[in-house]
UniProtKB/TrEMBL annotation:
Recorded GO CC terms: membrane
Stated family: Belongs to the glycosyl hydrolase 20 family.
Active site annotation, chain numbering: 322
Source taxon at top rank: Bacteria
Keyword Signal: yes
Domain Beta-hexosaminidase bacterial type N-terminal: residue ranges: 25-142
Major enzyme class: hydrolase
One GO BP: carbohydrate metabolic process
Enzyme Commission no: 3.2.1.52
Protein's organism: Chitinophaga dinghuensis
Protein's UniProt name: beta-N-acetylhexosaminidase
GO molecular function, one term: beta-N-acetylhexosaminidase activity
Span of the signal peptide: 1-17
Length: 523
């Protein structure tokens, strides 16, 4: 059976490559099995769309953008969406059949239908007479990993709701099902918390538009006040927009480190009581939330109450990375806490901090995610680890039978340079070309097959220190996010980089249509 499906996948692969040359849109991520037919389907105003209301609305949104009209539920030719738990498909899987008479999309769940719709959007092209032409095909498809994520840091630079929605559209198009929204950092607090108004009036703002490394002062600095935040209404709008596309939004509230913006508004939450200012350059800062002070926990729990009410996500991210311990070492309250809790060192105090907040999040019925530093001093039970500093954290967490999301900086940090051209706009230090993202193999990285069941998936990171504009964000995210999507979804065995590059080339018009300006430094 394995051999047959291998052969089938192989045949589909070759057929698709041939059709690519004939101008058929190439799919990213590559489906598990594809075979092309000789016929095609013409979608026009007389085509019926038979699907439940939410799914009809979603497809009609895209059809309206293309053709200026929407489909009704009656008509001769038919597009039929069927959810069928007995279809033999995995949870997010779908089967798509297109021939001259219509489109049949079958899935185990509505998630699968949404993925099939993304495939439809990549397949169709405008034909003569305001119609969409879809190539005849049989596709069977399902993801390799349940968790496929893309992260955006809005702390270092702020991005509008419109930009976030545009990004969410692209996540849907490439079957990425989690958006990790990094909402707070040293350089800005970006989410409205009604109980703490100074987070809006103070923590959301800093003295400089640009941020860079301290060494780059002063030429990158312009002395203009910079900032912004999302109101709770805007957050709800984004969450609903994503939910309609079956994308989960994971909020990240950073603690105990990367907290300078919050401290600037509420200095009593730091060990030295301030005064503090939101950071104007990037880096890791010594002033962090005070672990000895009970009001720190009260504040964070109040913040999390509002965050949890806004985000239906089962995962809540509490950061946990890069927390220097110098202030805690000099702080009597922190030392007192260590004594009373029988903690040996400041790493254990960080672990106490993370565990205490984790318990709070879990008591609200949610799951906790943290960066891999949450392993230090003892991992909070039930917490999922995002492993960014290499594989050791992942291996350690999986050994403790805890789930891991692979977010390695070498392969999946999109703030790194993507080419060696001297004209590249200034970026963070690393070098992560498209090929490196494409060739990443999370399972190989884990080393030990016994750990594989604990790897939920992979995620791309878009830190924004060097993203002063949305144009620059597009440039860094695309096309690398397409390689991420393929690694997260497609079987590892179908890897073929030159063939992937051809498909990227064929995706460019689609990106352009969505007003995305990708890097051209990849081929
Ligand atoms: C490390 S990765 C950070 C971020 C920076 C990034 C720059 C992680 C959990 N923390 O605060 O933006 O490096 O590449």
């Amino acid at each position: 059976k394995l051999l047959i499906s291998f052969l089938l996948a192989g045949m589909g692969f070759h057929a698709s490559a041939q059709r690519n040359q004939a101008g058929t849109p190439a799919l990213i991520p590559l489906p598990v099995q594809t075979s092309w037919r000789a016929d095609s389907f013409q979608l026009d105003a007389h085509t019926a769309l038979i699907a439940d209301a939410a799914l009809s609305d979603l497809l009609n949104t895209s059809i309206r953008e293309e053709l200026g009209y929407t489909l009704q539920a009656t008509g001769e030719k038919r597009i039929v969406f069927t959810v069928d738990t007995l279809s033999g498909l995995p949870p997010e899987g779908y089967r798509l059949h297109i021939d001259a008479t219509g489109v049949q999309l079958t899935a185990y769940s509505t998630d699968g239908i949404v993925h099939g719709m993304a495939t439809l959007q990549q397949l169709w092209h405008k034909g003569k007479g305001n119609v969409l032409v879809l190539p005849g095909t049989d596709i069977t498809d399902y993801p390799r990993f349940a968790y496929r994520g893309m992260h955006l840091d809005v702390g270092r630079h702020f991005f509008s709701v419109d930009y976030i929605k545009k990004l969410i559209d692209q996540l849907a198009l490439y079957k990425i099902n989690n958006f990790h929204w990094h909402l707070t950092d040293d350089q800005g607090w970006r989410i409205e918390i009604k109980k703490y108004p100074k987070l809006q009036s103070i923590a959301a703002w800093r003295d400089q538009t640009m941020i860079g490394h301290k060494k780059e002062l002063p030429h990158r600095f312009d002395g203009k006040k910079y900032g912004g935040y999302y109101t709770q209404e805007q957050v709800k709008e984004v969450v609903a927009y994503a939910a309609a596309r079956h994308i989960n939004v994971i909020p990240e509230i950073e603690m105990p480190g990367h907290a300078l913006a919050a401290l600037s508004a509420y200095p009593e939450l730091g060990c030295t009581k301030g005064p503090y200012k939101a950071a104007q350059f990037w880096g890791v800062f010594d002033d962090v939330f005070c672990a000895g002070n009970d009001s720190t926990f009260t504040f964070l729990q109040d913040v999390l109450d509002e965050v949890i009410a806004l985000f239906p996500s089962s995962y809540i991210h509490l950061g946990g990375d890069e927390c220097p311990k110098v202030r805690w070492k000099e702080c009597p309250a922190c030392q007192q806490r260590m004594k009373s809790q029988h903690l040996q060192n400041e790493n254990e105090l960080q672990s106490y901090f993370v565990k205490r907040i984790s318990q709070y999040i879990q008591s609200k019925g949610r799951k906790v995610i943290g960066w891999d530093e949450i392993l230090e001093g003892g991992l909070a039970p039930g917490a999922t680890v995002m492993s960014w500093r290499g594989v050791e954290g992942a291996v350690e967490a999986a050994k403790q039978q805890q789930y891991v999301i692979m977010t390695p900086e070498d392969e999946l940090y999109f703030d790194h340079y993507q080419s060696l051209y001297p004209e590249e706009p200034v970026a963070a230090g690393g070098y992560t070309p498209l090929s490196e993202v494409y060739n990443y193999d999370p399972l190989h990285a884990a080393g030990d097959t016994a750990l594989l069941p604990y790897i939920s998936g992979i995620q791309g990171q878009m830190w924004s220190e060097y993203l002063p504009t949305t144009t620059q964000a597009d440039y860094m995210i695309f096309p690398r996010m397409l390689a991420l999507a393929e690694r997260a979804w497609s079987p590892q065995g179908t890897r073929d980089y030159p063939q992937f590059l051809q498909r990227v080339q064929q995706q460019l018009p689609l990106l352009q249509k969505h007003n995305i300006s990708p890097s051209n430094a990849w081929n």
